[in-house]
Amino acid sequence: MLLRFLGVTMQFLRKALLAIAVIATVTVFFAFIALPGILDWNMNRVAGDAGPSPSAEALALHQSLTIGDLHADTLLWTRSPIERSSRGHVDLPRQLAGNFALQMYTTVTKTPRGMNIDSNSAEAGDNVTLLAAIQRWPAATRHSLAARALYQAERLHTAAAETDALTVITERKALDDLLARRAQGAKELGALLGTEGSHALDGDVNNVDVLYEAGFRMMSLQHFFDNKLGGSLHGESGAGLTEFGKQAVDRMSERGIMIDVAHSSEAVVRDVLARVKRPLIVSHTGFKGHCDTARNISDETMAAIANAGGLLGVGYWDKAVCAESITAVAEAIRYGIDQFGLEHIALGSDWDGTITSPIDASQIAHLTQALMDANLSETEIRAVMGGNMVRFLQENLPAS
Description:
The chain is of the alpha/beta class. It is built from 14 helices and eleven strands. The chain has helices spanning 2-43, 56-63, 92-97, 127-134, 145-161, 172-183, 207-213, 243-255, 266-275, 299-307, 318-321, 326-340, 365-373, 378-396; strands at 45-46, 67-72, 100-108, 166-168, 189-196, 216-220, 258-260, 281-285, 311-314, 345-347, 356-357. Helix 8 links the parallel strand 6 and strand 7 (258-260). It is globular, with a radius of gyration of 23 Å. It starts with a helix and ends with a helix.
C-alpha cells in the first residue's frame, strides 16, 4: 500500500514539475521573444489617411529628390535596422525603397511612466528600464543611461559593418562622398546618430566626449521630463538651463555637436539661443499656429530659432499636426514655409517613436504627392524633403 502511494505521489510530482516547466517556458518565450514584437507592433503603427497613390509625375519627381529625415527612434527596438520588418516604420529596405539618402537615428534612454505631453515627473518610473530588460540589453544598460545610448549606437555601427548600403556619417567629407556615390546611382543610406535627451550624459559633462567618440553628432537636451540640464516642455518646472546644462551646452558647442531643442522648455530654448552661436535643430515638431497642442512650442519661439539659422523638422503624428493624415503633414509644412521661411523646414517624422503615422519609410512618395497637391513648387519640395537637411549638415558637421 505504501509503495503504491509513493508511486502515485511521484507520478503527481512529475506531472506537476512538467506543468511548471511548460509554464516557465511559455512565460520566458512570451516575455523575451513575443512581447518585444507585440509592444513594437502596438506602439509604432501605420494607420490613418495616406492620401492618394502617387502619380507618375510625383514618382518621377520623387526619384530625383535627395530625401532626409531628422528623427527616428528605430534603434530602441529589437528588430534589425537592416532587415525588412512587418513592424514599425523604418528599416533599411524600406528606406531604400522610399529613396532615402539620410536618416538621423535618435537614441531613447528614458521615458516616464504615464508619459503625456502636458506634465511628467522626473521621479516617475522609467519605461525603458523594463523594455531594455525584456529585449535582453547588456547588463551595463540597467543603471546607466549613457550605456543605453552607447548600446544603441553600437547596434547601428554593427549593422553598417554588415552591408555596403548603410554608412554612418560623422563628418562632412563622409556626407559629400555618400552624396557623390548616390549621384552615380548607388543605393545607399547615410545614417547619423543623435540622442533623445541629454539625461544620456548620466550627469557627467565628460560623457559629451564619450558620445562624440561613439559617433553622436546631434544631442537633444530634454525629453518628456525635467533633467539635470533644465526644464522639459512636458515637465513640471518650466525652468531654463541649469549650471550643468550650461556646461553641457558649452561642451557640445566646443565639440561641434548640433544641439536639438525638441522637447525643451521655451525657457531652455531662449537660454540656448543666447548662449551659442551655431544654429539649433528642432528635430521633430509641429507648429503652434497650425496645430495648437501642448506638444508644439509657440510660433514666437520657433521664429527665434529660425531667425538664428535653425532647422525645423516636421513630424507625422496627430499631436504635432492635429490629424493622422498625410495631408495634415503637408499643411504643416506649408505653414512652416510661410511663417518661418523655406530654408528652415525639413522632415522630422518621429518614426518608431511610439507614434501612429499614416505612412512608413517605403511610402514617403505619398508625401511628395501631398506636397504637390498643396501647390508647393518643385524648388520648395526639393528643399523640405532633404535639401535643407543636406545644406545644414554640410554647414554644421565637423570637417573631419
